[in-house]
Amino acid sequence: MKMIYDCLVIGAGIAGITASIYLKRGNKSSLMLDKGAPGGKLNNIHRIDNYPGLARIPGPDLALSLFNQASELGVEYAYGSVYEIRKEDNVFLVKTDAGDFNAKSLIIATGVENKKLGIPGEDKYLGKGVSYCATCDGPFFKGKDVALVGNADHAVEDAIYLSDIVNRLYFLYPEEIVATPSHIEELKTKNNVTWIPMDKSIAIEGHELVESFIYEDKDGQHKLDVNAVFPLYGEKSSTAFLSPLGVKGNKGFIETNANMESNVPGVFAAGDIVDKKLRQLVNAAGEGAIAATSVIGYLRELPKE
Ligand SMILES: Cc1cc2nc3c(=O)[nH]c(=O)nc-3n(C[C@H](O)[C@H](O)[C@H](O)COP(=O)(O)OP(=O)(O)OC[C@H]3O[C@@H](n4cnc5c(N)ncnc54)[C@H](O)[C@@H]3O)c2cc1C
Fold it and tell me: Does residue 78 contact residue 70 with C-beta atoms inside 8 Å?
């Protein structure tokens, strides 16, 4: 007979790993599934300045430390991209490209992805100069000119990182910059950064590799000669795989109560995927802990087989 886990944790970012640690310590059987590297977004963060007690820690170091902590406790982890979840005979059936899994409850911790600019050339040059991760790909553009489009904290943090590597960084902001003031001040000290307010991204052009970025402002269209474009403007999430369950959401984000419960009994959520205002490491970890604690309470109330 197929194993039925007490809980399946979908997503092994900081929210999912924290939830798994709490479940394990609560003596519940759980499996953490991820379609990428454990640590999630942490792997894309060059330097974290605001995680309590771990000043200036590189994201990949925190990812490794979290994953090691979970592994040492005996948390089960498997690769798998979840594409559908159904409920059959009071058990959740989770379908992934690496097989199906069964569980009595779920914690959804699948985070968010960067939004595309949606302009010609963006898909064509992905990996050939277009990148959504400065920490991962910035070093490929050492001494080159690059463009970054964005206006929030992630964009400003990545701009600081890139400015130490590239020759010239064009920082294009389609809207007012809404980032931590100390980050903006740090970026202002970099004399190889050109700040460009703009209205619209138009196209990314090149031959084999990216050669230019075209944007529009009130004076018309302009072309910047660059070797890379980092679109870091906005985030999106997808909960399409949850649709058979009828989980309530808002624009792809899951609505929860203070116990991280969704409207569907047995389905909990934590981290960036939750419909909320602040998307940071510290509350993602906290919500992972709350979700796991709520799962433990939920399991206690389930009728005994
Ligand atoms: C460049 C950048 C810098 C940042 N800097 C900071 C900072 O300095 N301080 C701070 O507090 N926060 C920062 N953040 C925000 C922080 O990274 C996030 O709030 C946090 O990592 C969210 O964690 P999470 O576990 O909710 O999601 P994630 O870390 O995104 O993890 C979600 C996981 O789910 C997996 N997944 C998604 N869909 C599926 C599926 N269908 N099947 C299986 N697995 C799936 C993904 O592969 C991923 O590993 C930064 C973010 C970015 C992008």
Answer: no
Q: Which fold has domain 134-231?
A: FAD/NAD(P)-binding domain (3.50.50)
What is the token pair recorded at 78?
A: 């498997």
**What architecture (CATH level 2) is domain 4-112+237-301?**
3-Layer(bba) Sandwich (3.50)
120 CB near ligand 1 (under 6 Å): no
Query: Measured in angstroms, how far is the CA atom of residue 64 from the centroid of ligand 1?
Result: 14
User: Which residues pair with residue 5 across a beta bridge?
Assistant: 103
Residue 206 Cα, ligand 1 centroid: separation in angstroms? 31
- Closest ligand 1 atom to residue 14 Cα is 25
> Atom 2 of ligand 1 has which residue's CA nearest to it?
154
Task: Please state the domain extents for the chain.
Answer: 4-112+237-301, 134-231
pLDDT tens, N- to C-terminus, the chain (305 residues)? 689 999 999 999 999 999 999 999 999 999 999 999 999 999 988 888 889 999 889 999 999 999 999 999 999 999 999 999 999 888 999 999 999 999 999 999 999 988 999 999 999 999 899 999 898 889 999 999 999 999 998 899 999 999 999 999 999 999 899 989 999 999 999 999 999 999 999 999 999 999 999 999 999 999 999 999 999 998 888 888 998 999 999 888 999 999 999 999 999 999 999 999 888 999 999 999 999 999 999 999 998 76
User: Rounded to whole angstroms, how far apart are CA atoms 56 and 47?
Assistant: 6
Rounded CA-CA distance 265/175 in Å is 40
Instruction: Say if ligand 1 is within 6 A of residue 183 CB.
Output: no
pTM equals 0.88
Q: Which residues contact 140 (CB under 8 A, 6 or more apart)?
A: 228
